[in-house]
Amino acid sequence: MKVRNSANRTRSSLGDVGEERLLQRILPALPSSSAVISGAGDDCAVVRFGDSKKLLVLKTDCVVERVHFTSDAAPTGVGWKAMARPLSDFAAMAAKPEFALVTLIAPAAVSTRWVTELYRGLAKAARMFEVAIVGGETSGTDGAMSVSVSITGAVAKDRWISRDGGKANDELFVTGTLGGSIRGRHLRFIPRIEEAQWLAQNFRITAMMDLSDGVGADLPRLARASNVGFEVDDAAVPRTRGCSLAEAISDGEDYELLFAVAPRDADRMQTAWRKRFHKLRLTRIGRLVPHSGFRVPSSFRGYVHFR
Amino acid sequence: MKVRNSANRTRSSLGDVGEERLLQRILPALPSSSAVISGAGDDCAVVRFGDSKKLLVLKTDCVVERVHFTSDAAPTGVGWKAMARPLSDFAAMAAKPEFALVTLIAPAAVSTRWVTELYRGLAKAARMFEVAIVGGETSGTDGAMSVSVSITGAVAKDRWISRDGGKANDELFVTGTLGGSIRGRHLRFIPRIEEAQWLAQNFRITAMMDLSDGVGADLPRLARASNVGFEVDDAAVPRTRGCSLAEAISDGEDYELLFAVAPRDADRMQTAWRKRFHKLRLTRIGRLVPHSGFRVPSSFRGYVHFR
């Protein structure tokens, strides 16, 4: 990539600044409309659509060769991951995914079998959550392969959950176990769509997100969006077998749910969860605290994109 | 890209088969739903959304470095093109675009200025058509840069136009002039959103699409979808200044409208067009004919992806 630097004297690259900080600068100035309820910054966008009682939910995401999958990864796994990542963002908002569009960027030399298997993985993940794949585009490239998936879906007006509703004293929970996803789970994880909808329908979930960059990076984001601090009990963080605490916190790509629940719902929720989802662990890892009470464990170091 | 070839003995690559043929094989087997009115194959997907009277329209597209833009192209032009291409697909269906999501895949070395200018181009095109940009994702890569844009919008139930409604004797028109887009127009073309909606509201437009691969490749697609043949008057094809007939037919990236109109609306439409859009040429280039009457000019050679 040729870095253009004609008029500005101070060079800075995406790698120096970081994608998140750069987008935080750019996104607020982009065109919006009165139909937009939640734009860039949350897991999905939420907008009004015509006269519909339901809100329209939108998300796009991509996987890139040598960033999100290795060149020798099984193509069905790559397809699964490409579809499951934006599905996991729908889980984060307790929304129902409905329609998917796929963009494949691939060199001409890729085998038709690879592409067919990729689509098999995409279709398998879509089918599991009753999502229709309504379009597929393909472009050539001389570089790395990538697969982008955009998903559109729906949520009832009073039912969607963002990152920003957390209150001091809400209890913090995560599903599943954290860390070590790179060993294989990142190509076959199950988006927590069903669990998220059940939680939102039955308990006062005040803030929720999916864990993509690791709880060490994602929990501070949830707290910041909710304008509160947090406390985490390091010993309680559920680790995948063989993972250290640092790995559980920083590996990323867990695609589990992280959420805050009103304290008086916490016990009832845990009891009901064990009956409903007895195969999936649910763990209390800490609580939200007033903003002045920041007590971030030193173990919390984030996973940074564009390292 | 490593081409995996473990179990299948007959090697075939995306380049051999071509993206269009491969997707034609794969897409029909993908999961669908009763809400899908028009899936993959037309310019946009059209689906039902909840209880809304309007239909939801979906499209995703991408531009890739060294395929759709050169590495030294002005980033505002790249952004403009990335947004305007899917907008042009909305024009093709006479639908109203409303919300856009952007995915940027870029190496860490790209300058923040480049990314900022890219978003300036994206925003400019979105603003022109009152489209809100509701999300932006970024991923690293070690390869070519790419920008994917997904657009969601609406169309009235009885107002959308597909490629497949053309009838024998319908007259064929194109907007603007064709050919030579690569000299610069491909980075600043105007999607024919306004013109398409005006046409659909006032005349019997039976089939429509936008010209992305050149009329030589796109008109046969429209005819095939409508199950009719076509005749074209080579001399009538409106060429961009300095372009040969072959260039006008095959260069591609015109992003003009190609449409069929019921014969008795054709004169009235041309008169009204000249009043309404006097700066933009509208040219009758031929007509649809019964399927048995195929008369494809020898000058019609398509522009093929993955050359």
Per-chain topology:
The structure is a homodimer of 307-residue chains.
Chain A: H1 14-17, H2 19-26, E1 36-38, E2 45-48, E3 54-64, H3 75-92, E4 96-105, H4 112-128, E5 132-139, E6 146-156, E7 171-175, H5 193-202, E8 205-210, H6 215-226, E9 229-232, H7 245-250, E10 257-261, H8 263-276, E11 282-289
Parallel strand pairs in A: 4-5
Antiparallel strand pairs in A: 1-2, 2-3, 3-6, 4-6, 7-10, 7-11, 8-10, 9-11
Helix pairs in contact in A: 3-4, 3-5
Q: How would you portray this structure in words?
A:
The structure is a homodimer of 307-residue chains. With 307 residues, chain A is α+β, with helices and mostly antiparallel strands. The first copy, chain A, has eight helices and eleven strands. At the A-B interface, helix 1, helix 2, strand 3, strand 4 and helix 4 of A face helix 1, helix 2, strand 3, strand 4 and helix 4 of B.
Which sequence of strands runs across the widest sheet of chain A?
A: 1-2-3-6-4-5
Architecture of the largest domain in chain A in CATH?
A: 2-Layer Sandwich
Q: How many helices of chain A does DSSP assign?
A: 8
Total domain modules of chain A: 2
The poorly predicted ranges of chain A are 1-9, 301-307
Mean pLDDT of chain A comes to 90
Distance between the termini of chain A: 17 Å
Radius of gyration of chain A: 20 Å
**Structural class based on helices, strands and sheet pairing of chain A:** alpha+beta
The general outline of chain A is globular
Largest sheet of chain A: 6 strands, mixed
Write down the oligomeric state. Answer: homodimer
Q: Please, what is the CATH homologous superfamily of the largest domain in chain A? A: PurM-like, N-terminal domain
Tell how many strands the DSSP assignment of chain A holds.
11
Strand content of the residues of chain A, in percent?
A: 15-25%
Largest interface, C-beta within 8 A: A-B, 97 and 97 residues
